[in-house]
Amino acid sequence: MEFLSVGACDPPPRLLSAELKEQYKGMTTFPVNSKVEYACRPGYKKIFNAPNSLSCGRSGTWQGSQDMCTPKQCPYPGEPANGRLILAEKFVFGSTVNFTCNTGFRLVGSSHIQCVIRNGAVTWDRDIPICELVDCEPPSVENGKLLNGYRAEYTYRDTVVFDCNFRYTMNGSDTSTCSRNGLWDPPLPLCQLSSCDDPPDVPNAVKAKLAGNLFPVETVITYECREGHQFSPGETTRHIKCLPDFTWSETPQPCEMVRCPKPVVERARMTPQRLTFPYGADVRFSCEEGFVLRGDAESRCLADGAWHPPLPSCQPVQCPKPSGQEDLMIRYPKLSYSVNETLRFQCKRDGHSLGNSESTCSVNGTWIPPPTCEKRDICEKILRGRELFQCGIPLTELKTLLEIRKLYLEIQKLERELRVAAYG
């Protein structure tokens, strides 16, 4: 272990601004009255008239001022346009200068610089910053439009005014200003959907009259199919609603044309022939031979899917019971007779002659041959009353004969009525 000799100093102090000259750096003992010299470190310069040495005193301590060197000074850095520096005490080696920009301007670069050694000289470590005018992002509001304040670029204190598109409601302020920090203040508004779009068009349907062109939540739209059309069988009305997400509850299917069922009439021919029978279709019917139409020959498909007038029917042809002939007596009388059915009859013999006693019901509903009773020759009828035409009959006898004749005729009429009643 090495001990310092009596009357020696410790190694000389290490100074911030100066360092031992080379010839003293290797020394290990420093006797009393010995001296060491210092040289200023880079970035420092010797203080005028200040000694650059220390001496070892008798007390074993170093004597002399340690303030030998002072920091070198960097040149004045200047101030950025639209900004200023925050003044330090001195622009000396190791010092730092801070910068700030005026209101409405933004610092581009470092906010501070430092005085440093470069290539043996003191200088600033970087250029001073610049102050640029604060700008804001071009304002954009989705589903909105700019009403006022449009510019190619937006800078501090520029103001814009917005409005929302049709069917959108504004949430926030319609006016915003570019602030010193480059943000819009107050924040740009939101345009939020507040109405469903126009209700969809539906083929062959009409929308109920609308009160306006805005459709808030819960709005109900009614569709009516045009005449002769339907959404589904029997359904001609459909409703849709504006939902909370501003969509319609559904898009109705088109109204389809009403179609009537195929008309079927037994024993009938239909014209025109077709596969389907849409609303408004007309058909005409005619019966086969031996059948007669009951009802209307023409029918039309209506909006309710029914035929109108109702479809007819084809009924078998029937011949009516002969009428209008008091002298005709029918065997086994009926109200009507079928085609090819034979009618048997006879005529009264008193004062009449018997014609053909049979007649057949034809396909057109007539009797062939017609059942008739022919009168006898008129002269025979006269013979029966010849006593009335004799000359020289007294008036009183003639009156009696006429009364007898009247009674005879009444008896004949009564007999005829009884026979008719007997045949039906």
From TrEMBL:
Domain of life where this protein originates: Eukaryota
Key word Glycoprotein present: yes
InterPro entries xrefs: Compl-Cell_Adhes-Reg, Sushi/SCR/CCP_sf, Sushi_SCR_CCP_dom
PROSITE patterns: SUSHI
Disulfide bond annotation, renumbered to this chain: 164-191, 287-314
Domain annotation Sushi: ranges: 7-71, 72-133, 134-193, 194-257, 258-316, 317-375
SMART domains, per the entry: CCP (SM00032)
Pfam family, one: Sushi
Keywords: Disulfide bond, Glycoprotein, Repeat, Signal, Sushi
Descriptive protein name: Sushi domain-containing protein
Lineage start: Eukaryota, Metazoa, Chordata, Craniata, Vertebrata
